[in-house]
């Protein structure tokens, strides 16, 4: 029965092809606007995410203890390390011990300052860093320098500040340590085993944790006490990007403060989610306008086919049969417009992306755009399959909803009154 009603609806639409084309064009424009505006936010979000960092940086969670808050506040001690290792989705827990001195570096007459962290050398592969020079290795007495430390040495006697670069591997600086007890100083020769690539930890020095603890004992005059010792920070490495949020939430539930690119990524996703709703709503206005066009077209069809409706009912058609015919027609109008809108969106996607990719990167071309094309990963407009499917479904629903009341009016017509209409 439904198949016969569907054929009848197709025949009715075929009798008014121009009206079908004009009405579906409104749905086409609305669907295209919704798809392209949402696809724009998806493309911008992907480019932003790819520009944030590597997968390693997105799985890194830095944990900061609530120092001095209260006696019962959670501290970054061995108990915290053990607790973090028990959290599902944790791949590694890397405690970092902070050097209590000022991290003053000497290279002849040149000076520089850098924070120093002690790390278990066996945990280096889990820190998510790579070396640009040397080796990722920490033997006793060795140090790994961040990428920017060697570029910012200065001459304290110079009249103007001017950073000076040194080769920290072939000409390693010395570390100046000063005792807090008698202010005695000594210079420690550093062996730089490697220089990190730009990224995380580019402004710090990594040393074996035992070396850092020994330096802290000397400058403070107090022996290391494992019972009262607190780490400067703890880096927790999640097993994957998908588990980072759950691991971060579990650590926060234990009372610790967390920080990392993953948290920034969440904020970024919320921002683009809001933008997607706003731009999708703007595109939806065009669909609302198209809905009025569908409703008007179906109302006109009901008026023009009043006698036909009466005849259908006179030969046995039920109210729901008449309702179904007109709903099928309205749905087909929406579906045709939606399908055309998806096709037009794909065409415009290829045209826009090709134009952006082929645009020269000179300053004149960049100035004509509100963004720098070089910052985009590969495409500005991204239309995933689910967005195309959603566009088709939305356009069909708009047609059905817009045609419901005209179809209901046709279904409720009295056969006698319909047949009397001129």
> Which range best describes the helical content: under 10%, 10-25%, 25-40%, 40-55%, 55-70% or over 70%?
40-55%
Q: Within the largest sheet, what's the order of strands?
A: 6-10-7-11-5-2-12-1-13
| Alpha carbon gyration radius | 34 Å
Query: Quick one: biggest sheet?
Result: 9 strands, mixed
Structure class: alpha+beta
Number of helices: 12
Mean pLDDT: 85
Give the termini distance in whole angstroms.
Answer: 30 Å
The percent range for strand residues is 5-15%
Can you walk through the features of this model?
By secondary structure, this protein is α+β, with helices and mostly antiparallel strands. It folds into two domains: 2-54 and 267-420, no CATH class; 94-234, no CATH class. It has twelve helices and 13 strands. The protein has a nine-stranded mixed sheet. A four-stranded antiparallel sheet has the order 4-3-8-9, with no helix packed on it. Helix 2 runs antiparallel to helix 11. The protein is elongated, with a radius of gyration of 34 Å.
């Amino acid at each position: 029965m439904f198949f016969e009603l569907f054929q009848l609806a197709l025949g009715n639409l075929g009798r008014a092809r121009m009206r079908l084309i004009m009405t579906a064009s409104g749905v086409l424009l609305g669907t295209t606007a919704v798809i392209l505006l949402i696809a724009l936010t998806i493309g911008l979000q992907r480019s932003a995410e790819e520009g944030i960092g590597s997968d390693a940086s997105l799985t890194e969670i830095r944990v900061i203890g609530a120092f001095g808050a209260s006696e019962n506040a959670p501290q970054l001690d061995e108990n915290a390390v053990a607790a973090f290792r028990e959290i599902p989705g944790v791949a590694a827990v890397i405690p970092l011990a902070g050097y209590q001195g000022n991290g003053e570096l000497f290279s002849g007459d040149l000076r520089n300052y850098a924070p120093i962290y002690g790390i278990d050398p066996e945990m280096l592969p889990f820190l998510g860093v790579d070396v640009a020079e040397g080796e990722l290795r920490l033997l006793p007495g060795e140090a790994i320098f961040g990428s920017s430390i060697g570029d910012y040495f200065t001459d304290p006697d110079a009249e103007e500040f001017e950073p000076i670069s040194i080769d920290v591997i072939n000409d390693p600086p010395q570390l100046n340590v000063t005792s807090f007890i008698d202010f005695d100083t000594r210079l420690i020769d550093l062996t730089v085993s490697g220089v990190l690539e730009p990224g995380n930890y580019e402004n710090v020095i990594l040393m074996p944790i035992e070396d850092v603890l020994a330096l802290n004992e000397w400058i403070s005059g107090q022996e290391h006490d494992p019972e009262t010792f607190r780490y400067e920070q703890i880096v927790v490495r999640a097993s994957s990007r998908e588990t980072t949020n759950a691991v971060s939430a579990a650590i926060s539930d234990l009372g610790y403060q967390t920080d990392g690119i993953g948290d920034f990524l969440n904020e970024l996703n919320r921002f683009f989610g809001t933008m997607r709703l706003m731009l999708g709503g703007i595109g939806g206005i065009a669909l609302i306008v198209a809905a009025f066009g569908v409703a008007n077209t179906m109302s006109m069809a009901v008026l023009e086919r009043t006698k036909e409706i009466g005849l259908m009912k006179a030969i046995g058609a039920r109210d729901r049969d008449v309702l179904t015919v007109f709903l099928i027609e309205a749905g087909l109008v929406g579906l045709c417009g939606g399908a055309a809108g998806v096709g037009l969106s794909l065409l415009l996607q290829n045209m826009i992306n090709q134009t952006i990719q082929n645009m020269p990167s000179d300053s004149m071309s960049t100035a004509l755009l509100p963004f720098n094309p070089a910052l985009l990963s590969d495409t500005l407009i991204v239309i995933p399959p689910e967005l195309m499917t959603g566009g088709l479904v939305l356009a069909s629903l708009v047609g059905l909803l817009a045609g419901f009341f005209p179809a209901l009016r046709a279904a409720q017509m009295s056969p006698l009154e319909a047949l009397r209409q001129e």
